[in-house]
Each structure stands twice: as structure tokens, then as C-alpha cells.
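pinned: reference chain
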Amino acid sequence: MNLIANITLLVAALLDMVVLLGGDIADHRNNGHSNSKYYQWLNKSGEIMSLKRLLLLAVFVGTFTTMALQSWMVVMILAAVLLIQGIYLLWQRQWKLLDDGKNAKQMLFTAIFIVLCAIFGIGQSALRSSVGTTVFASRVTSMAAVMIAPITWLLTMLTAWVLRIRPDSDNPEQQEPRD
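pinned: its C-alpha cells
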């Protein structure tokens, strides 16, 4: 049952991460694909410490509690919280990522690839550790996904840098940043 709970937590964290990442990429595009303008907007708008990101951090801390380490029921409750938030954010979002241009699609798929490689690497390291059980690896992997989800804004900036996306290369007319 622990394995199922950990996989549920992983799926819920990945859903939240993809929804937040899509919104962050749209915000990055609205700031002309400029990392400096995007970072200034993040600080001004308070998006870095928004309630949705704080909830993800609370779930991350909750997965470290002794009760969560010993009880699959607590992990399922944390996963349910993340699923509810992910579905709510999915319904609330006004962006249409597939209509956001070539750079947005490249950024999304590159960021997801980076995250999945990191999570897979962490899971493989956990399997090779002295504990090395499938349940332990699934717990470490799901905790890694929950840990990465609140910092999708940083992942967006890293992906723009990796892809060498130039400011305004996909958005000739500068749009106003959304609040």
C-alpha cells in the first residue's frame, strides 16, 4: 500500500508541477522572454511566495514527518491535497499553452524532460542505496517531485537559458505582464 500511496503522491506532484510550469512559461512570455524582466515581475507580484507554492512547500515538509514516513494514509491525504490543487489550478488557468508559440512549447517539453531526468536519477540512486527497496525509492522519487514543484519559476528561467531563447524572439509585440 505504501508503494501505491507514493506513486499517487508522485502523480499529484507532477500534475501540480506541469500546471504551474505552464503558467510560469506564459508569464515568462508575457515579459518578453527576458529572464531579468520576468524575475522583476515575480518579485513585484509576489508570485514566488504565492499560496499555491506555499501549499506545495507545506506538503513537502509534511512528507518528512514521522507520521508520513510510517503511514500510507497520511501520504494519500497529502496526495489528495495536491490533486485538488492541481485540478483547481487547471480549471482556473486562462493560458492556452499550445497557442503560445514555438518557444513556449520548446520550454515546456525541455523543462519536463529535465525534471523527469532528475527524478529518474534520484530514484535510481535511491534504489542503489543501502536501503534500496522499491518503496523507499518511490518515496524518495515522490518527495523529489514535490520538492521541485514550488520552484517552477526557477526551472522556467533555467530552461530559457538552456534553449538560449532571446528576449521577444517569439513575441514581437511586447505584451503587458499579467498580474
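why pinned: DSSP finds eight helices and no strands in the chain. Confidence is low (pLDDT under 50) at residues 170-175.
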